[in-house]
Each structure stands twice: as structure tokens, then as C-alpha cells.
Amino acid sequence: MDEVVGFTIPQGSFRLRARSGSAACHSTSEAIEMLKTTIKVLGKKLGYDIVPLWRRDKLELANLLQSIFGLHDIKVVLDVGANKGQFAEFLRLHVGFTGRIVSFEPILENVEHLRALSAADGAWDVVGCALGSTDTEAEINIMKADVFSSFHQPNALSAELFGDWNVVDRVERVSVRRLDSIAGELGLDFASSATYMKCDTQGHDLDVIDGCGVWLEHVRALQTEVSVIGIYEGMPTMNESLDTLGSRGFAIAGLYPVSRDEAQRVIEFDAVLVNDRFCTNKRSG
After folding, report:
1. 78 with 39, same domain?
2. Mean of the pLDDT values across residues 136-147?
């Protein structure tokens, strides 16, 4: 028996017929995939892009990174503050990036998770250290929700905004390296391989930037978390972060809210910046 799926939109009614036992459709899952493809094609004809719900929230950022990666032919992404690999998976699934990813993560439990996760991906390397402005060891505060883990102490406002999530659960002593001192060990050459750098270190991003040394001028674009409302002691403000990067030759390409308070005020943005050195139309002033 033929299976018929029908649907109606303002421009008209449509029916899809899947013939039982035919080579065109052997299973319900194939019928669903055929339906998805047909809906996407119809959407394009009607002037719409139809995307899965799982892609919707990050679609704008993914589109920007696709443009930047294509424009600069990005070969390497540095994932600084990798946590459990969320950004690397975003690159693979949402951006479609197939090049080399180097994830830096200092917390031992997360490093073990990342190595298991990346084992089947030959272009994904995991480095078990933090990046910073000096080669040293330091104590990192591991929060109850470890995405908040930081070298900084959470402030009083953090408890008001995030409750127990951003409360120190334990402290771990970790290795910290400057990027310019470890780059050679990892086979990184920013001058010959176009590189994108993402930083998400909970108040420590400018230290990571400082540790890039002269290599920073070769980074084609970067992503950093900037705070409108500071939630750690001694962390830079959004203006301080953007002014510092502006003085190093980077211009804002996009700002994407990471979190909001109950009044919907933005707490943090992911800021994407491009290196003006590689822009053909130079800005003045």
C-alpha cells in the first residue's frame, strides 16, 4: 500500500507518495528524510531557509563563522577553554569545519572526557593545560557547574545571578602555558596556516591574548567572551576587553548574547573580531 503524506501552505497543497516496497523508499526513516529534503527544496523556492530546531539558536554565529572561515581559508582553530568540547562539536556540526582543532583545557576530568570524545576525530587534538600570560602553575576554581570554572573568584553578584551554579566546589592545581612558548611543540605556525582563536576562560581571556606574543598579529579572527555585568573578582569589563583588542588591530564582526538576567539584560556576549591586517579595505582613524 502506498503511504501518502499531505500538507498545506498558503501557496497551495502538496502531497508526497511513498510506494511500499519500492526502491525509492525502503523504510519510515527514509520517507522522513525524503520529506525533509522536499520541504527544504519547497522552502527555497518560496524564499525561505528551513533549518532544524537544534541549529536555530546558533545559526547566526554559525553563518558568520562560515563566512570568515571561507574568506580567510581557515585551516586551524584554537579552542581555548574547551570544557567538554562544546565548541569543537559546534564547529563540526553547525559550521561544517573539517580542519584542525586544538583544544586547550586544564581540568583533568574534562581533559579525559575530551580525549575520549576526540579519539575518532583525527583532526582534533587535546592539550591538557590552560593558556595565559606566563608559563607557570596556578590554582583554578572548579565550580559546581564546571562551565563557570575560573582562575578568578566569583563575586557576590554571581551568586545572585546564577545561585549555586557558580560556587567553588573544589580547587585544582594546573599547568599554564603561553601560546607563543607552546606553539612550536604543537606544530602550530600561524604565519603559514590561517588560524581562528576562540577564548572562553571566564575572565582570563586577556591573559590568553597577552600570551600570544607576536603570533597574535597572524591570527585571522578571534572569539572572546566579554562581560557587560562582571561575575568574577578582577575580571575586565566589556569595554576594557574590546578596547584592548582594538588596540591590537582587531575589529568587531559580531556580538552574540551568552546569558541574560531575569530582566533580559545581557550578562555576557561572545564577541567575534577580525584582524584588520588581513582586510583589503583598511580603516582610517
Report:
1. no
2. 96
